[in-house]
Write a structure and sequence with these properties.
Blueprint: E1 8-11, E2 16-19, H1 42-57, H2 61-68, H3 76-93, H4 96-116, H5 122-128, H6 140-160, H7 166-195, H8 203-221, H9 226-234, H10 241-253, H11 259-276, H12 284-297, H13 302-315, H14 318-331, H15 336-352, H16 356-369, H17 374-386, H18 390-396, H19 400-406, E3 413-414, E4 417-418, H20 420-429, H21 443-450, H22 454-457, H23 461-479, H24 488-505, H25 509-521, H26 532-547, H27 550-562, H28 570-583
Antiparallel strand pairs: 1-2, 3-4
Length: 598
């Protein structure tokens, strides 16, 4: 439901959103008569949804949609299940037709859910602005309608962000806020229902939905820097990491329809968010525990195989990960978007091993098949080709310079803003637009760092040593360059930072410290890659943490946060700094982790 200016009343006390503007197509506002309500009861709807979810996890995507489709206009759970699957597909393809189809389905889901929400007259809506009505006056069906409405609204908001306009961005933000308010009220209702002697039969399903909503909001908002989080808390949001983890763990442990959804939220956090936007210290033990029952139940499920492979990758067992990613690809052919996720992971897995030809094959497939971020894919492919011997590049038929020149034209924008990684790639690729192109130095290794890949490679000492050899060769070539370009100092500092990372993961902390301090001391000589100084300062802080000097670590990392502005990927570093500082109070210095089995 969208905000409609003067014609809108937000009844925040109840979490129910009532509108005086009947023109909003997402808000039928109780104009649907009782006779249009479904004859399907709530228990049967939940059972059908569970069957559809099982079909989905067994790679029978069309069968799952076929089961839900006939009842989607008459049953809230059929509607939300159907639209959720289409929304997931749209999020993976970025195809306009898929996005439009998903948006239509979500709009219909909101209308279906609205049929079952508590009817509130205009007088009641105005009264509830001043006098809070008890949340326990909703029926079991009305409570589930609130929950389903919040889920559909949140998904519609996520797809709204794919539109490039600022208006759509604002609308998406308002939908998210409305969704959170409803989840909060559902939490109150769930607590009341739990304390009643005559608990409703679907309480477990309802509670797990609340767990997922409240948990995911708290967990993911907790990732935001404190300044942003304080603003969001003032707007009514909450971002408590421990609350988020606790809620999602409760939801994952419940034997309910949404158990798998809470599990997937936790896996996404542990296996992606904490790696890319955190310090890289993923909770692999919990991830294994969460996934184990689904491996037994859905051994050939594409999503399960994918996460099984991702866990192996983060453990440093690249060979087993590659095997599982290939099994995931072979498991189904209907949703090729899952193949693209595997191509991305396989590209990195082979890059970590410096098997550049294999890495190129998967980067090339991404360029040809996926629309997620063509600028990043093309830059990544060109970067990988730059690591290969010239004769091997010729065999591919690729022109590296032309690929780099394409990057700028392929960039996407969200709400008129550039995507940080694409902006970084385009800036690096600018070297090839000059009349006399200046070659990038080990760009694929630099991109490994951008995606925090050194925290993964560091678990394989022999591969870390191999990467270090590559870096030192580049270091020697720069040192002996008879005609240094305007990028010379930048390239030298980038190489020193990457060298310091390898040395730190190998336990050579004094040598690593020299590398990081060299970059920091070169601040006034760096012309283009200004990100190198704050990032090196952050890495130096992590080195101090590894040595056990938490005071010095905190001061150094805070300096990186406070004293540098306007550099590439600034927000990404702020996320990592926020995560690092949050761990300082309980951290114990650790040696580089050893490789563990999958």
């Amino acid at each position: 439901m969208e905000i409609g200016g003067f014609g809108t009343i937000l009844c925040m006390q109840t979490g129910l959103i009532c509108s005086l503007d009947m023109m909003d197509p997402e808000d039928p506002f109780l104009l649907v008569p009782d006779k249009m309500k479904s004859q399907m009861d709530l228990e049967t709807a939940l059972q059908d949804s569970a069957k559809a979810l099982d079909l989905f996890l067994n790679n029978r995507f069309s069968d799952a949609l076929d089961l839900l489709r006939p009842w989607r206009s008459q049953s809230m759970y059929h509607a939300v299940g159907y639209s959720s699957m289409l929304a997931m597909q749209a999020g993976m393809t970025f195809e306009p037709k898929d996005v439009e189809k998903a948006m239509t389905a979500l709009k219909e889901s909101l209308q279906t859910c609205q049929m079952f929400r508590k009817k509130t007259t205009m007088v009641e809506a105005i009264t509830e602005m001043f006098y809070k009505q008890p949340a326990d006056n909703l029926t079991e069906e009305e409570m589930h309608a609130e929950l389903c409405y919040a889920e559909a609204l949140l998904q519609k908001a996520a797809l709204t962000f794919l539109d490039e306009s600022m208006i759509s961005f604002i609308k998406g933000g308002m939908k998210i806020r409305n969704s959170f308010l409803i989840y909060k009220e559902c939490d109150v209702m769930s607590t009341m229902a739990k304390n009643q002697s005559d608990q409703m039969s679907t309480q477990t399903h309802f509670r797990s939905g609340v767990n997922m909503g409240i948990g995911s909001f708290n967990l993911y908002l907790s990732l935001l820097p404190s300044k942003v989080l304080r603003l969001l808390e003032w707007m009514g949001f909450s971002g408590d990491r421990e609350v988020g983890l606790s809620q999602l763990r409760e939801g994952a442990a419940s034997n309910s329809l949404r158990s798998i959804l809470s599990t997937l939220c936790l896996l996404m956090y542990h296996l992606y968010i904490s790696v890319i936007l955190g310090t890289g210290e993923a909770n692999l033990e919990e991830s294994d525990f969460l996934l184990e029952p689904y491996i037994e139940k859905f051994p050939n499920g594409a999503l399960i195989l994918f996460y099984q492979a991702r866990i192996a990758l983060l453990k440093g067992n690249f060979e087993f990960a590659q095997k599982k990613f290939l099994e995931c690809i072979a498991a189904q052919q209907e949703w090729r978007q899952i193949h693209h996720l595997c191509y991305w992971e396989l590209m990195w897995s082979y890059s970590f091993q410096q098997d550049w030809l294999e890495a190129y094959q998967y980067a090339d497939l991404l360029c040809k098949e996926s629309k997620w971020s063509q600028a990043v894919y093309v830059f990544q492919k060109a970067s990988i080709l730059s690591m290969m011997p010239e004769e091997e590049v010729k065999k591919t038929g690729e022109n590296v310079e032309q690929l780099f020149r394409q990057v700028e034209s392929l960039r996407l924008r969200i709400a008129g803003k550039s995507i940080p990684t694409e902006k970084f790639a385009a800036k690096k690729a600018q070297r090839y637009s000059a009349a006399t192109p200046v070659t990038l130095v080990i760009p694929a290794v630099e991109m490994i760092y951008v995606w925090n890949g050194f925290t993964i490679i560091g678990k394989r000492p022999e591969l870390t040593e191999s990467i270090l050899v590559t870096i030192e060769k580049a270091e020697e070539q720069l040192k002996n360059d008879p005609n240094p370009s305007e990028y010379h100092v930048d390239d030298q500092c980038m190489v020193q930072m990457l060298k310091g990372l390898c040395l730190r993961h190998l336990g050579h902390l004094d040598q690593a410290q020299l590398c990081f301090t060299h970059v920091i001391s070169s601040e006034n000589r760096i012309k283009h890659d200004c990100y190198l100084v704050p990032y090196s300062m952050y890495e130096l802080g992590l080195l101090y943490k590894q040595q056990g000097d938490l005071g010095k670590a905190t001061t150094t990392i805070e300096n990186a946060k406070l004293n540098y502005k306007g550099y590439s990927m600034e927000s990404r570093l702020h996320f990592r700094i926020h995560a690092a500082l949050n761990t300082m109070g309980t951290s114990v210095a650790k040696l580089p982790p050893h490789r563990t089995s999958a």
